[in-house]
User: Fold this.
Amino acid sequence: MASITIRNLDDDVKTRLRVRAAQHHRSMEEEARIILGDAVGRKPDTRNLAEAIRARIAPLGGVDLALPPRGPGREPPSFD
Assistant:
């Protein structure tokens, strides 16, 4: 296993880490490992925006939109 040293850590950050570790009944080192593992262990969301919106709306039953009727397209321009 690898090890790292973190220099110039703000005293307030160290204090909050110590308190958080105590609340979880862990050492500061173990708490830091868990925090770092959670931060870098997450895979990026590979869904596109439409899929993300669909996943968010689907549990609500979806949304039905009334679409206006489509007419014929316009004539293409003439370059004569």
The helical segments are 11-23, 28-41, 49-57. The mean pLDDT is 88. The radius of gyration is 27 Å.
